[in-house]
Amino acid sequence: MTSIYNFKRIAPVPESTDFLDIVLSKTQRKTPTVIHPGYKITRIRQFYMRKVKFTQETFDEKLRQILEEFPVLDNVHPFYADLMNVLYDKDHYKLALGQINTAKHLIDAVGKDYLRLLKFGDSLYRCKQLKRAALGRMATIMKRQKDSLSYLEQVRQHLARLPSIDPNTRTLIVCGYPNVGKSSFMNKVTRADVDVQPYAFTTKSLFVGHMDYKYLRWQVIDTPGILDHPLEERNTIEMQSITALAHLRAAVLFFVDLSEQCGYSIQDQMSLFASIKPLFANKPTLLVISKTDVCTLDAVRPEERQLVESACDSNVEMSQLSSYLDTGVIETRNLACDKLLLQRVEMKLKGNKVNSVLNKLNVAQPGRRDTVERPACIPTAVLERRSRQDAAMADGDDRPVLERDLEATNGGAGVYNIDLKKRYLLASDEWRHDVIPEIMNGKNVADFIDPDIEEKLAELEREEERLAAEGLYDSAEESEDEEERRIRDVARRIRQRKQVIANESRVKDVNRATLTNKQKAAASAPEDFVNHLQQLGLDPEAAASTAQRIGRKRGRSESRDPAVLLARSSSLAARAVSTQRDRSTMGLKNARQKTVSDKKKLVSQRQMNLMARAGESDRKIGMKMPKHLVTGKRSIGTNDRR
Amino acid sequence: MPQNEYIEESIRRHGRRMDHAERKRKKEARKVHKDAAFAQKVHGLKAKLYNKKRHNEKIQMKKTLKMHDEKNAKQKTDDAVPEGAVPAYLLDREGQQRAKVLSNMLKQKRKEKAGKWNVPLPKVRGIAEDEMFRVVKTGKSKTKSWKRMVTKPTFVGDGFTRKPPKYERFIRPMALRYKKANVTHPELKATFQLPIIGVKKNPQSPMYTQLGVLTKGTIIEVNVAELGLVTTGGKVLWGKYAQITNNPENDGCINALLLV
Fold this sequence. Notes:
The complex is a heterodimer. Chain A is of the alpha/beta class. Helix content of chain A is 50%, strand content 7%. Chain A has 23 helices and eight strands. Chain A binds chain B through residues 21, 25, 28, 113-114, 116-117, 119-120, 122, 125-126, 129-130, 133-134, 137, 161-164, 192, 195, 204-208, and chain B through 1-6, 9, 13, 45-46, 49, 131, 134, 151, 173, 175-176, 247, 249-253. Chain B: Residues 1-40 are annotated as: Disordered. Chain B: Its main location: nucleus. Chain B: Keywords: Nucleus, Ribonucleoprotein, Ribosome biogenesis, rRNA processing.
């Protein structure tokens, strides 16, 4: 069960020194750390302003978290508010939180001030000093919160250990003098393991346990014992019980120990009951007489008995129990629970909320439309069966035999095994108990089960027969005619040829010197050509005649033979007129003169080369200051970059 | 569901584990080594923090040890030489004294010395004008630069009226104006935050005095009415001089020493 009041989620509050370490090292981790005096001053300022701002924000965030997480006493249920007041002192608690709040504001102010000062920082040193001063002042403010922080941490630890009591649910409160058996009862009815000892004030704080009654979840609160004295004199332990009694709407079980083993007389106990009775107003109350194994109501003196009985009135009922003997415990619990439940229902009915629900409820009663009877339709078979059963009932053999009866007669549950195959619908009843093999011929039988298989097979066979009768399967003798065969043959040869060409090109060595097409043609004999044409299936005769006609030799060239030609070419050198001579050597006597003249030529050309002239005659003067290169604005780059 | 003092309750019911004391003892014994290992391993900011903490602890430890030692440490004194004839075997003995008394005396002396104050800062560092002022450029094309902004904390009296901003030569930023100073009374050894009445003298230059610049060594007048000081004649003092002892532009606050 979850309660709204769960104080276990409050984050731990660090000590002031730890707090500082956490915040400052976070600043160190999360802000840049490298800065040099050479940086622009704006950058330096920004660097330190960031540090100051970050530290201030971290402090702010951490303190805000504390302020938000701790419950505000005015906002929690009065029971918890009062309990916290009793345990932690309201003033102290508020003061601590208030101080934290003040510290938060102070730190914010410091951060703001120093950011303003940093704006006027004109050197790295000054900025750094200002940052140091800012962090130092923040740290000083935090150091002053040492006591508040440690107090809040203690409160947090205690709060987290408070029992999670839901103030609004069904609750039984067990109260009474110390050592009268409250915790024993608690241990009996719930699973809460409260310590029980034979001395007073064993239970020093509230304990909560849970139980189920009428399918509802109930909480039982065990309170520390209370003594009979004025409210002002009560100590913290007693005040917790008083708080619970005062603020929780619950059934109260006031325990009385008639045996006086607890060390307090019956008069004392009854006077306590009378004095705290105002707290029981509007609460179902039970006066529980405990330890009946030691002393019952009948065994006490009459005047005391009178005292006890006089305490019971319309609002207060008496109940007796003994946790030791386990008598009356459950009865007492049930009585208390019933009374509380009744009261809660009454309260709800009195309240406004119930009206809004009741308004929505409407039980409609339809009126009769006409006089026509519209009885329920019952099948005749059912009617027959019913009448048969009725007859059987009248005979004494009242009802049909059920599987349950069979089970009962055949040895009961666990012995009788139900016969599931009994009602199988098969062609023959004898097959019912036959064992179906799971595997047959290495195959799973279940895979082949098809109830309509026979039907389908028959269908298929019939169709087959029909088709056969129609002559669908008669193989038609297709005669391959002449034309088609020829085409196929040609195609086959083309394919073969292609294969051969591909293979040849594959084995061809490309690194070998190859003849050009012209040379190849020159080298090839006319017979090759004829062969080739034959292979291609063309008429070689016609082609040969055409070739002869085109390439007919002229008369003169016919007579010349290669020997004559060779003789002509060898005599070429002797013919001075028609050959071109090397002019570079003309007019020079020997090789030495040639080298000298070459050198001179180079020297004379040097200047022209330097001036990038084409020759002696090249006197061109180019543009010296091209306008587009030297005028206009220059934003980026130099002139020669354009 | 655990509630209230469930840990203590559990210990009370079931006791601690058998070797609890042993484990505790061992853990304690091991702690020294663990700390040493940590001290060697740690680096960076964590190391700085850790070393500082450890240093302080050590100082505290040594002080405690010394205090214990002082109780029974003996020291020699010259004047307590025994009078009269002394047997030879006692000749080299000198008078001894409890160290504690001596140290107390020393402390007393130091205290007295600390109480004597001269003019606290007789000398100050010179501050050039370009450190003191930032040039503010004015004019439509930002060419004029006759305006100055003071970059140090200043005191501006209540009655100050600004010139028309256009003609104002010196700007004293609001962010750098101070009205209060933390003044230490050297005899009372107490510090009070007192309102500043005026700047008596800035040793840097009379102009700074006029501008009310607060730098280190500046003599300011503070309102000491809060302190309730009276003259020998019985008049209540309210204005008193104090000298600034810190660099206000670096610290963001003004610390001063009352001149008595």
